[in-house]
Each structure stands twice: as C-alpha cells, then as structure tokens.
Amino acid sequence: MPNTPTHDFLTIASAVVLTPAVYGFLNGIEVEPVSAWTITVVVGVAHLISGILFSPDLDIDSRIHKRWGLLLFLWKPYKWVIPHRHFWSHGLILPPIMRLAYFFGMVIGLLYLAEYAFAQLGATNTNNSLTLATSIITWLTDHPIITISVAIGFITGGAVHSIADWLVSGGKRLLRSLFVPPKRSRVARKSVWQVSVPTRWLVDPFSKSGPRHY
Ligand SMILES: [Zn+2]
Question: How far does residue 200's CA lie from ligand 1's centre (Å)?
Fold first, then answer.
C-alpha cells in the first residue's frame, strides 16, 4: 500500500489535473463562466476533503484519524463495522458517498442525543438537530448541481486512493502485461490470464478480496 504522505501527494496532484479538466469541460459545453467556476471549485475542494480527511483508510488506525483530533470518536463505529480494506471502504463509487452520509448521520445523531439528554434534565427540547438536518437536505435538493459536484469530488478523491492501492497491490503488473510489448515487460512470459490480481473489491460489495498487503 502507498503510505499516507504518498496518498496525500496523489490527492493534491490529481486535484491539480482534475480542476482545469472540469473547468475546460464545462467551458466546452458552454456553461456560463460563474457557474463553471463554482462547480470547478466545489469539485476540487470535495476531491481534496475526500482524499485527505474522508480517506478510505479510515477503516484502519492511520494518520487520517489524527487529523480528526477531538472528533476522532465519530469514526470509531465506522472502523469497527467496516471490513478492513474491502469494497465498503475502498470501493470506487458508493463508499466515498457512504462516508459522507455516515458523517452527516453521526453529527445529527449526536446533536439529537445531546438535545434529548438536556430535555431529560429539564431544558426545553428545541429539536434544532432535526431542523438542521432538514435544512441541509432541503438545501442540497434545491441545489442539485452543487450536490452532484460534491458527490463527484468525493468519488474522485476516494478513487485516486483506491486505484493507487490497486496499482501497488498488483494492478501495475496486470497493466504491464496488457500494454507493454513482451520483450520489455517483466511479466513477458505470462499471458494476461496468468496474472492474478484481485480487482473485484473495487466494484463488488460482495467481494471477499481486497488490496494485497506487501
Ligand atoms: Zn487504502
């Protein structure tokens, strides 16, 4: 597996490539400049947050946990429940969105519990947590382009990490056997069918495999 600084570097380097590409694409399909800038910034920031704070490696003890400081406890249940280096943490599309939804659910859930506890002690139950949750969901549904941009950024941020793990755990060998002419490939003698690389964990929730450890 690449270590955390390598993953961080890849997240930042890919953001540097991704953001002009998103802006160029939006410009190409004639989205007005202000909207194109807004979408580009949202995708870029979501990509960075996904890779650096909501990393797939939250399923194990890692430097990512330290970044959460006092809020680290929010991720403890996630770490207990999510299988170590598996589709549910390292998969390509669903898991990054799931992490965001999990975080949202935990924050609202804890605010709700705190309000409930204060109400038991005699304070007025204001239901601010539910009002906050409803306002956020309403805002997101009223601004679908921003919501989709956040989702895209979160997916790309997680995907850069998962693909790097896949490349290090054998994917590079598979690509070499597919694209490098036999004489220059170290796996020249092997056909592509002989190169066994677990890949299903990237897309299949029921896969029992994960990125290999070296
Ligand atoms: Zn990983």
Answer: 15
